[in-house]
């Protein structure tokens, strides 16, 4: 009988690595899912501009127009405004938040849902806003924050 207990212990010890391997594999798969969701949700582009709110508001209008992104409506919210626009494939949302009198934060999201985001388009919109502000500063159409 003691040899059966030994055999059972050896058998269980031999199977333990297999069981813990499954647990490790399951934890690894779960962690990969969390990482994917996190990186997918980070497809939103946020930038702050050292410009008055009205300047960034107008630059956002101009950027969407120049990129031929159709503006559906602008919704006034407590912190600022939300631009609802649409490309041929999916919606684009641009949120403007007044941080101070001379700092405005822009959050651009492009895509159908949390799992189908287009960071390239969101980045292009943010870049277009930046370029329009830079052009306006260069031509003297915007007052610099130091003035």
Secondary-structure topology with pairs:
Blueprint: H1 2-41, E1 45-49, H2 53-66, E2 70-77, E3 80-86, E4 91-98, E5 104-113, E6 116-117, H3 119-139
Antiparallel strand pairs: 1-5, 2-3, 3-4, 4-5, 5-6
Based on CA inertia axes, which overall geometry fits? globular
Oligomer status? single chain
Which series of helices and strands comes N to C?
HEHEEEEEH
* Class by SSE composition: alpha+beta
Overall average pLDDT: 76
Compute the separation of the termini in Å. Answer: 94 Å
Description of the structure:
With 147 residues, the protein is an alpha+beta fold. Strands 1, 2, 3, 4, 5 and 6 form a 6-stranded antiparallel beta sheet that branches. Helix 2 packs across helix 3. The termini are far apart. About 13% of the residues have low confidence.
Quick structural summary:
This protein is α+β, with helices and mostly antiparallel strands. It has helices at 2-41, 53-66, 119-139, and strands spanning 45-49, 70-77, 80-86, 91-98, 104-113, 116-117. Strands 1, 2, 3, 4, 5 and 6 form a six-stranded antiparallel beta sheet that branches.
């Amino acid at each position: 009988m003691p040899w059966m207990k030994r055999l059972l212990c050896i058998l269980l010890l031999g199977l333990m690595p297999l069981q813990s391997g499954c647990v490790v594999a399951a934890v690894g798969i779960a962690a990969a899912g969390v990482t994917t969701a996190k990186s997918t949700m980070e497809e939103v582009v946020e930038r702050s501009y050292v410009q008055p709110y009205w300047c960034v508001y107008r630059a956002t209008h101009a950027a969407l127009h120049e990129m031929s992104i159709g503006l559906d409506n602008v919704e006034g919210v407590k912190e600022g405004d939300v631009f609802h626009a649409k490309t041929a494939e999916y919606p684009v949302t641009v949120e403007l938040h007044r941080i101070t009198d001379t700092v405005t934060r822009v959050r651009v999201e492009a895509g159908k849902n949390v799992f189908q985001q287009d960071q390239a388009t969101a980045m292009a919109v943010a870049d277009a806003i930046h370029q329009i502000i830079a052009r306006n500063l260069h031509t003297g159409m915007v007052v610099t924050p130091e003035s």
